[in-house]
């Protein structure tokens, strides 16, 4: 207590933790969309306000709750901006047909093969197929680039079965 008094730092209150989570959810995640980056952002925020760090487990809980809340809000916002026909078409990309070994989404995710005319034609066909989906640009316009990169990594690493169990 004497050290806190001397340095001007204070112990975090429940209100501080709630305010921190709300700020992380609405502001912090925009620049730091991963758990580790958001922890660093949290340290800086607490340091700026002279608030002592909560216990490590509590800090991680706050960061995870902020991340989860941010992405839930983002998913709901983007889903609301997509027409029903587009959502249905996107869901259909996750289905593996009876005569197929992978879904259309997996084919979209596939890296281009060796440089050549055939590879270029395949990539052009992918691009044309994506344009036909009709996803409005406005649906993702407000999403920061760092967040889009994080979502891209997630989608690239998840199997189709895992993606199908996510909420709409």
Element layout with pairings:
Layout: H1 2-7, H2 14-31, H3 35-49, H4 56-81, H5 84-92, H6 104-109, H7 117-133, H8 138-141, H9 145-157, H10 160-164
Helix pairs in contact: 2-3, 2-4, 3-4
- Which parts are unreliable, with pLDDT below 50 for 5 consecutive residues or more? none
Q: How far from one another are the termini?
A: 49 Å
Q: What assembly state would you assign to the polypeptide chains in this entry?
A: single chain
Query: How many helical elements?
Result: 10
Report the C-alpha radius of gyration, rounded.
Answer: 21 Å
Summarize model confidence as the mean pLDDT: 90
Largest sheet: none
Residue fraction in strands: under 5%
SSE pattern, N- to C-terminal? HHHHHHHHHH
Shape: elongated
Count of DSSP E strands?
0
Helix content: over 70%
Structural class: mainly alpha
Brief write-up:
By secondary structure, this protein is an all-alpha fold. The chain is 71% helix and 0% strand.
Question: Can you describe what's shown?
Answer:
With 168 residues, this protein is mainly α. The chain contains ten helices and no strands. The chain has helices at 2-7, 14-31, 35-49, 56-81, 84-92, 104-109, 117-133, 138-141, 145-157, 160-164. The protein is elongated and about 70 Å long. The mean pLDDT is 90.
């Amino acid at each position: 207590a004497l050290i806190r008094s001397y340095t001007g730092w204070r112990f975090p209150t429940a209100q501080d933790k709630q305010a921190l989570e709300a700020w992380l959810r609405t502001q912090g995640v925009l620049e730091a969309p991963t758990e580790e980056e958001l922890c660093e952002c949290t340290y800086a925020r607490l340091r700026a306000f002279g608030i002592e760090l909560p216990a490590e487990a509590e800090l991680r809980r706050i960061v995870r709750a902020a991340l989860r809340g941010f992405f839930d809000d983002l998913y709901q916002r983007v889903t609301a901006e997509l027409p029903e026909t587009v959502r249905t078409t996107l869901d259909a990309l996750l289905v593996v047909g009876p005569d197929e070994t992978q879904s259309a989404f997996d084919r979209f995710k596939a890296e281009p093969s060796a440089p050549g005319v055939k590879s270029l034609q395949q990539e052009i066909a992918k691009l044309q197929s994506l344009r036909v989906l009709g996803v409005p640009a406005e649906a993702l316009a407000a999403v920061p680039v760092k967040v889009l990169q994080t979502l891209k990594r997630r989608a690239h690493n998840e199997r189709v079965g895992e993606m199908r169990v996510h909420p709409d």
